[in-house]
Specification:
The complex is a heterodimer. By secondary structure, chain A is mostly helical. Chain A has 14 helices and no strands. The N terminus and C terminus of chain B are likely disordered. The chains are: A mainly alpha, B alpha+beta. Chains A and B meet through helix 2, helix 4, helix 6, helix 7 and helix 8 of A and helix 1, helix 8, helix 15 and strand 15 of B.
C-alpha cells in the first residue's frame, strides 16, 4: 500500500509539469492583454513598463522556467490584474471557503443521496421508488443557478421570517445552508441514482443469494454484503465530483457572493490574468490528483481484490 | 419592508426572526450605520494603481485630495488645498494646515510631490500614469530607460514648502484643476508605502487621511469604513460606519435589498434589466444621470461612403431602444458630448443625423444615393448583459436599409483586441461606451484624434486634430466650448463625417432605502460622497403614503 501511494505521489510531478506547460501555451494562444482591463487604451510606453515589471517581455521559455521554479518553491507570482495581490494570497484567502463549500455540498449529497438510492432499491418499483427517482431526476436536470435563485427567493425572501436565512455571504452558519443545498442537489440526485442501480445489480449476485440462503438476517445482508459492494461506483464517481465541487462552484459563488476561488478562476481567464490562471490550474490539478488517490485507497477497503492486484 | 407604511410592523418580525444576520442592514433606526453594496472587489486601493469606479469610490471616501468637485455641475472646491493660483502654465496650490494622516503625521506638499512622482515612475508601471501627461517632464520620466533619477527631478511638480505645491504644465490645460480631483492625484503615505511595499493597502497596514478609515477589507466579500473623528471636517460627517458588501450578481443584490440586508443595491453595479419594469414603480428606485455616452463606432475604411454612415445613424430609433431595451431612463444622444457636461448647450450639435426616434424615410433615401453600399456588416459587441439586446434591435433597424448585420459577440479581452486601434479588418461596426474621467468635454472629444489610442474607427480628419490642439491652449471656457462645438459639427453637423453613432447618455440606477435616499447621491462621474449621507427615519415618505 505504501509503495503504491508513494509511486502515485511521484507521478504527480510530471503531471503537474505537463499541466503547467499546456496551460502556459494555451493561455498565450488566445488573444488579449492582461493590462487592458477597461476600454481605455494603454499608451505604448506604459504597456512596456508593465511588461517589463512582470517579465512578459522575456522569451516564453524563460517565463515558463521561471514559473516552474516558482511552483516548486511555492511562489505562484503576482496577479497581473489585482495589482496589490499575489496568487499565494488569493489561494490562502479564497481556497478555504471553496473547500468548505465543496466539502459541505459533498457531505449533503452523500448523506441524502446514498440512503435515498438505497431505500429506492429496497423498495424497487413502488411509489416510494418512483417518487424518489422523480425527485432525483428533477434535481439532476435543474441547473444549479436556477436552484440557487429559487432557494433565495423562497427561503430568504418569501419565508425569510420563518427560516431567517440570509440571501448571500459566507460567514455565519445560516449563510452556508442555501449554497450547500444549491451546489449539492445535483450530485445528491446523481448519487441516489447510482446507489439504486448498483444496489439492484448487487442484489442479483450469487453471493447475496448464498448469504440469504445461509439464513443471515436481512438487515445484515443489506448492510454488510449489498451496500458495501454497491458503493464502489459511488466512490469512483465521488473523486472527480469532489474535485468539481471544490473548483467548479463559480456560479454558486457568484450568486451567493461567496469569496471563493471559483470566482477568481473565471475572472482571471476572462481578464487574461496569466499568473492567477496558472496558479489555480495547478491547484485544481493537485486536487483532482489527490481526490483520485483517495478514491483508489478507499477501493482497497471496499474491494480487497483491487488491493491484492496492486500489492 | 418593501411597503413604506408597513415598514415598522414587518421590521419587528424580521428582527426577531433574523438570528444569524449579524449586520443585516441597519434595520431602519438611525444609528448612523448603513450597509451598501460595492458590487465588486476594488482591484486596488493604491491611488497610483486604481483605474476603476469601485476603487475610486472607496478611495474618494478614505482619502482627502487637494480639491473636490461639488454640486450638480461639479465645481472645483477647496479640500486640502485652501486655494490655488494659475499663471500661464504654472499652477500653485496652497495647502491647509489641517490635513492629518491617520498615523498622526501632517499632510504636506511633499506628500503630493512624492505621490505624483511615484505614479509617474516607470517602476510602479501605473496604467494611469498618463493622467499626468500634461505635466512637464512626466512622459519622459515614465518612459525613461536610463538616467531615470535625473528625469525624475525634471518633472514639473515641486513642494516649495510644506504647504505650497507648484505644478508646471506643458500648456495651459484649463481642465487641469478638474483633473486634480481624480483618484490618481490623491496622496499616499510615504512611510506606509515604504514599510509595507505592495501590501500597504491592506486594512491592517493602510494609512489614510480622509473622512473614513478602512476598518475591514475581506477580499471579494466585505469592505467596511468607519468614521475618522480626527478628519479636518469630521463634524460635518453624520455616518458612523458604512458596512460594504461585494455582491456582483444584480439579482442577488436586489434580493438582499428586499430581505433588508442592504440599504442600497450598489449604484455601480446597476440593476438587472429584466427587473427594471417591476422596480421602477417602487419608492426605493433611484435614477441619476452619468457622464457617459453609449455609442456604435464604424470602421470608416470598411464603410467609406459618408451617406451610408448617415443613413445607418438615421435608421436607429434611440428612443425605442431606451424605452424597450435599455429601460433605465437614459437620454437619446444627439451628439457625442453627454448632457450634464459644462457648456453642453453650446457644444451639442443637435445633429440632424441623430434624431431621437430616427428617420427611416430619409435614411432609405440617403442609402439609395450610395454608389457601392456595404450590405454585409459585422457588428462586434462584448458579452456583458444588455449589449446583445440592443445589437439585435439595431440589426433589425439596419435590415430595413437592406443591410445584413452579423452580430459577433466576444468576451471582453478578445473584444478589445478586435477593436484595436486599428480595428480588425473584419470589424465593420462595434459598440462601446465612454465614461468621463474629468468634467470637460475635452475628455470626450479628444478621443477622435487621428492617432488617439481610443479611436477605433480609422477616422482621421486633420481639421479636427487642429481644433483639439487649439483647445489645449484655450483657457477661456466659452472660447473653448466654441471649439468643441466645431468638433461636434465636423462629426455630426449637416456636412458631418459620422464616424460613429452615439446611442444614448448613461444613467445610474439603484435601489436605496428611503431613510438615506435624499442624501445618498451619485455625481456625474459616478462618485458617492458618504460624508453627505444622513440617515433619516424615512418618516416623510411614510406620512405622505
Amino acid at each position: 500500500m505504501t509503495t503504491f501511494v508513494l509511486r502515485r505521489l511521484v507521478w504527480t510531478v510530471p503531471v503537474i509539469l505537463l499541466v503547467i506547460l499546456l496551460t502556459f501555451l494555451l493561455m498565450r494562444q488566445i488573444e488579449g492583454n492582461p493590462f487592458r482591463t477597461s476600454e481605455r487604451a494603454i499608451p505604448e510606453s506604459i504597456q512596456q513598463n508593465l511588461e517589463e515589471k512582470y517579465g512578459l517581455d522575456d522569451p516564453w521559455y524563460v517565463q515558463y522556467l521561471r514559473y516552474v521554479k516558482g511552483v516548486f518553491t511555492l511562489d505562484l507570482g503576482p496577479s497581473l490584474v489585482l495589482r496589490n495581490r499575489d496568487v499565494n494570497d488569493i489561494v490562502r484567502e479564497h481556497f478555504p471557503p471553496s473547500l468548505e463549500l465543496g466539502a459541505l455540498a459533498m457531505l449533503f449529497a452523500l448523506v441524502f443521496g446514498v440512503p435515498l438510492g438505497m431505500l429506492s432499491a429496497l423498495r424497487a418499483n413502488t411509489f416510494f421508488d418512483y417518487g424518489a427517482m422523480f425527485v432525483s431526476n428533477v434535481g439532476f436536470a435543474i441547473p444549479s443557478f436556477l436552484v440557487a435563485t429559487l432557494l433565495i427567493y423562497f427561503f430568504a425572501l418569501e419565508w425569510g421570517d420563518i427560516f431567517g436565512l440570509p440571501t448571500s455571504g459566507w460567514d455565519t452558519w445560516q449563510s452556508k445552508v442555501l449554497p450547500t443545498i444549491a451546489l449539492g442537489l445535483g450530485p445528491m440526485a446523481y448519487f441516489a441514482r447510482l446507489t439504486r442501480g448498483s444496489m439492484l445489480e448487487t442484489m442479483q449476485q450469487d453471493y447475496i443469494r448464498t448469504a440469504r440462503a445461509k439464513g443471515l438476517r436481512w438487515r445484515r445482508v443489506v448492510v454488510v454484503h449489498t451496500l458495501r459492494n454497491s458503493l464502489i461506483p459511488v466512490v469512483t464517481a465521488a473523486g472527480p465530483i469532489l474535485g468539481f465541487l471544490i473548483t467548479g462552484s463559480f456560479i454558486i459563488e457568484q450568486i451567493f457572493a461567496i469569496p471563493g476561488i471559483g470566482r477568481y478562476y473565471v475572472t482571471a481567464v476572462t481578464g487574461r490574468d496569466y499568473s492567477v490562471v496558472m496558479g489555480l490550474t495547478v491547484l485544481l490539478a493537485l486536487i483532482v490528483i489527490v481526490a483520485n488517490l483517495v478514491v483508489d485507497i478507499l477501493y482497497g477497503f471496499l474491494d480487497p481484490r483491487t488491493r491484492d492486484a496492486r500489492a | 419592508m418593501a411597503v413604506a407604511g408597513f415598514a415598522a410592523l414587518s421590521l419587528a418580525v424580521v428582527l426577531t426572526a433574523c438570528g444569524g444576520g449579524g449586520d443585516s442592514g441597519s434595520g431602519g433606526e438611525a444609528d448612523g450605520v448603513i450597509t451598501i453594496n460595492w458590487s465588486s472587489e476594488p482591484p486596488s486601493l493604491d491611488p497610483g494603481l486604481a483605474t476603476d469606479t469601485t476603487s475610486s469610490n472607496v478611495l474618494g471616501n478614505i482619502m482627502d485630495g487637494l480639491i473636490t468637485l461639488e454640486g450638480e455641475d461639479l465645481t472645483p472646491t477647496p479640500a486640502l488645498a485652501e486655494s490655488w493660483d494659475i499663471e500661464g502654465n504654472t499652477v500653485t496650490f496652497h495647502l491647509s494646515n489641517e490635513g492629518r494622516w491617520t498615523n498622526g503625521d501632517p499632510v504636506t506638499a511633499e506628500d503630493f510631490e512624492y505621490s505624483w512622482k511615484r505614479t509617474i515612475s516607470p517602476d510602479l508601471a501605473a496604467d494611469y500614469a498618463y493622467q499626468f501627461d500634461g505635466i512637464v517632464g512626466a512622459t519622459d520620466y515614465n518612459s525613461c530607460e536610463k538616467n531615470c533619477d535625473a528625469m525624475r527631478d525634471k518633472v514639473g511638480v515641486e513642494a516649495v514648502d510644506d504647504r505650497t505645491l507648484r505644478v508646471e504644465l506643458t500648456s495651459p490645460q484649463p481642465w487641469f484643476i478638474q483633473q486634480v480631483a481624480h483618484t490618481s492625484f490623491l496622496p499616499v503615505n510615504r512611510s506606509a508605502v515604504e514599510q509595507f511595499g505592495n501590501k500597504w493597502t491592506e486594512a491592517s497596514n493602510i494609512v489614510t487621511n480622509g473622512p473614513f478609515k478602512l476598518a475591514r477589507w475581506d477580499h471579494n466579500s466585505r469592505l467596511d469604513l468607519v468614521k475618522w473623528d480626527e478628519w479636518r471636517d469630521a463634524d460635518s460627517v453624520s455616518l458612523q460606519r458604512v458596512n460594504g458588501r461585494m455582491i456582483t450578481e444584480g439579482t442577488t443584490a436586489v434580493q438582499a435589498f428586499e430581505a433588508g440586508e442592504l440599504d442600497e443595491t450598489g449604484a455601480l453595479g446597476g440593476l438587472p434589466p429584466e427587473e427594471l419594469p417591476r422596480l421602477q414603480g417602487t419608492p426605493e428606485y433611484e435614477q441619476s444621470p452619468s457622464l457617459g455616452t453609449y455609442y456604435y463606432g464604424i470602421n470608416v475604411d470598411n464603410v467609406p461612403d459618408v451617406n451610408q454612415r448617415r443613413a445607418m445613424a438615421l435608421a436607429i430609433d434611440r428612443q425605442s431602444i431606451i424605452d424597450n431595451v435599455a429601460q433605465a431612463g437614459q437620454l437619446p444622444a444627439s451628439g457625442f458630448t453627454p448632457e450634464g457636461m459644462p457648456g453642453f448647450d453650446a457644444i451639442n450639435p443637435n445633429s440632424e443625423w441623430l434624431p431621437a426616434s430616427g428617420d427611416m424615410e430619409r435614411a432609405k433615401q440617403l442609402m439609395e444615393q450610395v454608389q457601392n453600399p456595404v450590405k454585409d456588416i459585422t457588428l462586434v459587441i462584448n458579452d456583458a448583459p444588455g449589449h446583445r439586446e440592443i445589437a439585435v434591435a439595431v440589426q433589425d433597424m439596419w435590415s430595413d436599409l437592406g443591410i445584413d448585420v452579423e452580430i459577433q459577440q466576444q468576451e471582453w479581452a478578445q473584444f478589445l483586441e478586435a477593436l484595436g486601434p486599428p480595428p480588425a479588418k473584419t470589424t465593420d461596426a462595434y459598440r462601446l461606451g465612454w465614461i468621463g474621467d474629468f468634467v470637460d468635454a475635452f475628455n470626450f472629444l479628444e478621443l477622435w484624434r487621428c492617432d488617439s489610442g481610443n479611436n477605433n474607427t480609422n477616422y482621421c480628419n486633420k481639421d479636427y486634430d487642429a481644433l483639439v490642439a487649439q483647445a489645449r491652449n484655450t483657457p477661456d471656457d466659452n472660447e473653448r466650448y466654441d471649439l468643441y462645438a466645431q468638433m461636434e459639427r465636423i462629426m455630426f453637423g449637416p456636412d458631418g463625417d459620422v464616424p460613429l453613432i452615439p446611442i444614448y447618455f448613461y444613467t445610474n440606477v439603484s435601489l436605496q432605502k428611503e431613510s438615506i435616499k435624499d442624501t445618498f447621491t451619485q455625481d456625474l462621474l459616478d462618485q458617492i460622497d458618504l460624508t453627505k449621507v444622513v440617515e433619516g427615519d424615512g418618516s416623510g415618505a411614510e406620512a405622505s403614503g
